[in-house]
Each structure stands twice: as structure tokens, then as C-alpha cells.
Amino acid sequence: METRKRSKEEWARRYAAFVVILFVIAFGTSLSIRANLGSSPISAPPYVLSLVPGVGLTMGQLTILMHVFFIAAQVALLRRDFERRQWLQIAVSFLFGFYTDLTMWLTGFLQVPESLPAAIGLPLRLAELLLGGAVLAFGIAMEVRCDSLMLAGEGFPLAIAKFTGRDFGKVKICTDTLLVCIGAAFMLINFGRWDWAMVGPGTLISMFYVGMMVRVIAPHIAWLDRLLIPHPARKAAPAAAPGPQGGHLVVAIARTYGSGGNDVAREVARRLGCPCYDRQLVDLAARRLGYATEAVERSEQNISTARLWEIVAANTGIPQSMNPSKDDAIFVAQSRAIRELAHRGPCVIVGRLAGWVLRDRQQVLRVFVTAAPANAARRIASRLGLSPDEAARKAARVNTGRANHCRHYTGRPWADPSAYDLTICTDHIAASTAAEMIVQAAKAVAANGSDAAGGKC
To answer: How far apart are CA 262 and CA 369, in angstroms?
Structure first.
């Protein structure tokens, strides 16, 4: 989505929505705690301390104190880079603390009695934990869509990631683990034993389950924009992202490594008499982000399997505009560049999930160019001077990175034929022949405009 200046009315709507969303998040957290299988990682320290006799503070009050510490840490780490509007995190912390106590009171009757037999009690607890996690995920997904403020518990690891230059996913996992350890330490020091109702399997489940549910729910809450964005602003679509009825012809070519897709793309652009964008997108993203071009080139379209599991394990509900991950920043910068280039005029765009980024445009032909692994390896070995085995390993590694990149940002398989209008295998088709096939298909799209895409990758 192109950058659009928000009006005062829209900001007011988003802040008002955020107040309601906070209640949903607090309710989901409290419901999960009532399952007596352990709290979520970020709630572990205040929840355990609230159960210590003589502390005299509620879980909500302790949550406020913890969040104030997180805010102070953000200011100390970011200093001038701490956004002014994020000072509102202080008010958010007090409100969230109030909501925490309120929802803990409201959900008191839902606590599963300890006296129930395990055969009955355990399934009930698990069901309540999953329901609470789903409510929490729904709240987080709405918070992401709202994209106005954030809880201090999210801002703290975000500040650490910015200060250290580390990946947000790794920092989030480390901070969540640290909070669980602190909660466990409070439990052992004050109670002298391990209590699974304080820090238990529910804590571990929350780390994975909530993030997974955010992914499931997020695509289905676009309706929230009708509440957040005033009608005139919704009606005025960004110039660089026209709807299905407008736009220049764009040929978006995805390709497996070693298939010759880049050569095909250049030939298509030559025959259509339009520019072909490939490495230019790397340069554009680098300029936007202030990264070295080499750094962008190393990271783009190349999420390793280990990194993909980090993303699943971490809370992926941070809005793209607030996420310092280099992978995410590059994706956002390149997506904006793709929309701008598509708005300028007809073009061919290679890779970078261009077909998915332009999924709301009608005049887009989505092509997937592939080749058998053995043939791809021969091309790579010939071009780079590698042995066949080295070439095959390189192809597998690059294709895995591209597939993971697609899965992360679109939720869809990269090589799914239904995601493309045309799939070409270059094992027995020359680049010139493949280019001619694409040109003919592109002309048909331009002529009848009937190949509108619906969320293709």
C-alpha cells in the first residue's frame, strides 16, 4: 500500500479503535490464564508476583509497572529516535493494566476447578487455553490492522532490535524466553516449587499458537478498514495502486533458479518495447532504506528455513511499518517500488512477488518459468563454472529461500500453478519461444482485460 497521509479524523478513529482492541487483548490473556496451564510469556512475571502473599498489588498494577519499565528502556535505547506519539504508551499501559484486572474479574467464574478429574479437567483447560489464545490473536490482528500505537511489551523488543541492529524475530524470542525465566524464578523463590498453573505448557503453547492464529485471522479482517478510514479517504484510491478496472500492462515473471527466467524476461520486455525491472528493484530498495546494495541483494527473496521457523515462533503481529527486520523492511520497500513502476507505464518485473503485490490490478499477466532440477543445474554450472553437484545444491538453496519468502509474505505456495496465468518449462523451449508465448498472452490480457487476479502469489 502506498504511503497516505492520515487525517485527524482517521487518527481519532484509530485511537478509539485501539482502546477497544486493548480490551480484547486483555480478555484473551485473562481467558488463557484461567485455563490454569500457565500464562503467556509477557504476562508471566506480573501474574506470578500477583499470587505472592503480601505483595499487595494486583496483576494489572504489576503489569503497569512492568510496562513503565519497558517504556523507560525504549527511551534510553532509542533517545531521539523514540517517536513522540509512542509516549502515549504510558496511557496505554495504565489502560491495559485496568483492563487486565477487569477481565481477570470477569473471567473468574471460568476457572476450571482443581477438583475435577484429569480426564475431564484437562480437556476443558486445553479448550479454554486455545479459545483464549484465539481471542488474543484476534486482538493482535486487529491491533496490526489499526496500526496506531503499540503495547510497551512489543515496543521493548522492537527498541532492542533497533538499537543492536539485530533481527526482530530473534530479539522477540529472546525477550519472551527471558520473561518466562523471570516468572519461573519468582515462582521458585516465593513458592519453593514448580507450579504448572503459573508457568506451564500453556506458556509454551502461547508462544507458537498465538502467532499461528494471527496469521490465520489477519487476512479476514479487512472489514476493519471501513471503521478506521473515513469514507472519502477510502474512496480516493492511491494513484499507484489502481483497482481492477485500471492500470498499465505489467508482466510479472517468477522463476526458479537456473530456469533462464531472467533471459526470458528481458526478451519479453524487448518485444513489448517496455522496461524490464530486476536488479533495479534492489537498487531502489537500498536507496529507500539506506542499506548497501549488497546487503539488500543478500537478504531479498532469501529467507532460510531456520529464519522461517523463527518467524513462526515469534509474535508476527507487529505492523510492517513498525518492524525493523531487514527482510520485512526490504519487502515493504520493494513492494512500494513495484507499485510505483507499474503506475509509470507498461513493464516487465522479475521476481519479488510482483504478481502478488499487484494482485488488485487487472492488467497483470503472472508467469512462472521453471526447469527440471538437472537442466537447471547444468545451466548454473555452465554460467558460474561450478561442478554439477555444487550447482544443484545452489539451486536447491536459492529455490528454498524464494519459496519461504513467498510463504511468509503471502501465505501461499510459491510454485502453485493456480497462482499464475501461464507456467512455462524451459527444458525443451528456447528463451525466444517462451518469450513469444508470454508476449501473445500479454497482448490478450491487454486486449480484453478479463484476467483479473484474486490474491495470486
So the answer is: 9
245/242 Cα distance (integer angstroms)? 8
Q: Pick from 434, 276, 278: which is nearest to 346 by CA?
A: 276
pTM of the predicted structure, to 2 decimals:
0.58
152: closest CA among 197, 90, 212? 90
In whole angstroms, give the CA distance from residue 243 to residue 452: 10
Residue 158: closest CA among 173, 171, 143: 171
| Separation CA 362–CA 365 (nearest Å) | 9
Q: What is the pLDDT of residues 309-342, one digit of tens each?
A: 444 444 444 444 444 455 555 666 677 778 877 8
How far is it, in rounded angstroms, from Cα 224 to Cα 238? 18
Query: For residue 190, what are the CA distances in angstroms to 49, 56, 57, 177?
Result: 9, 14, 15, 20
Q: Cα–Cα distance between 1 and 237 in angstroms, integer?
A: 10
Q: Please give the Cα distance from 64 to 196 (Å, whole number).
A: 24
- H/E run at residue 159: helix 152-164
The mean of the pLDDT values for the chain is 79
| 81 and 162 Cβ atoms separated by less than 8 Å | yes
Q: Which amino acid is at 39?
A: S
